[in-house]
Every structure is written in C-alpha cells, then in structure tokens.
C-alpha cells in the first residue's frame, strides 16, 4: 500500500514513536504546529473518519482513550484534537489520524 502512514506502521518510514499497542500508534508530527503536536492513528488503513464503519467503533473509542492518556502524560490540561477529512478539510495524508496539539493557546474559529 502506497501510504505514508502505513509505511510508518511497518517501520519502512522512520518516526518518532511515542505510543504503540496492537491496533494503534502515535508519533510526533514531522512539522509541528504547536510545542506538542503528535498524531494518533489506527494501524489498519482507514482513509478518513468518513470511511469508518460500525465494526470500527471499539477501535475509535480506544484511540480516544489513547489520546486522553498521552495528553495526560504530556501534562496537557488544555489541548486540541483535530481530524481533517478530505481536501477542503485540509487532509494531506489519506490515512485516518488525529492531531493532538498543545502547549499554546489556540484560536477559534480555525482557519
Ligand atoms: P493532515 O494535513 O492530513 O491532516 O495531516 C498530515 C500530517 O502528517 C501533517 O501535520 C504532516 O506534518 C504530517 N506528516 C506527513 N508526513 C509525515 C511523516 O512522514 N512523518 C511524520 N511524523 N509526520 C508526517
Ligand atoms: Zn495507510
């Protein structure tokens, strides 16, 4: 599969990994937009949140708990979780990922 994040899962592309379990990995973003900026992804290829199915419910729930745990480990009390969907949503890597950004204040609405 010609997918950057699938290659990060297999190790073909190196990453600064901060968490891994059977179904999930998290790694620091290559181009951080905040003092803390990591990505949490399912190991299995899902293109975006628009493609999840009922059978992915437990996986998505566990990703949310991993986000909570990693945010806590990074001493983040305030932070932002983002998943971009499709071109106009700002998605550049078509493998579901949740950005976790912290360590500074964020604006709303986003750009
Ligand atoms: P998107 O724009 O799809 O929501 O986010 C993709 C994110 O993946 C971007 O923040 C980008 O910096 C990050 N990214 C793209 N390629 C790589 C890579 O090879 N390694 C890491 N660690 N991050 C990457
Ligand atoms: Zn993939």
Overview of the structural elements:
The protein is α+β, with helices and mostly antiparallel strands and 111 residues long. It is built from 2 helices and 5 strands. It has helices at 4-10, 57-73, and strands at 17-20, 24-28, 36-42, 79-82, 98-102. A 5-stranded antiparallel sheet has the order 1-2-3-5-4, with helices on one face. It is globular. The model has no long low-confidence stretch (mean pLDDT 97). It binds guanosine-5'-monophosphate and zinc ion. It holds the Pfam family DcpS_C. A motif (Histidine triad motif) lies at residues 95-99.
Unreliable residue runs: none
List ligands, each type once.
guanosine-5'-monophosphate, zinc ion
Structural class: alpha+beta
Strand content: 15-25%
Strand count, sense and closure of the main sheet? 5 strands, antiparallel
The number of distinct β-strands equals: 5
Strand order of the largest sheet: 1-2-3-5-4
Distance between the termini: 32 Å
Which geometry do the CA atoms define?
A: globular
Mean pLDDT: 97
Radius of gyration: 14 Å
Write the element-wise H/E pattern from the N-terminal end onward. Answer: HEEEHEE
Helix content: 10-25%
Number of helices: 2
Summarize the structure.
With 111 residues, this protein is an alpha+beta fold. The protein is built from 2 helices and 5 strands.
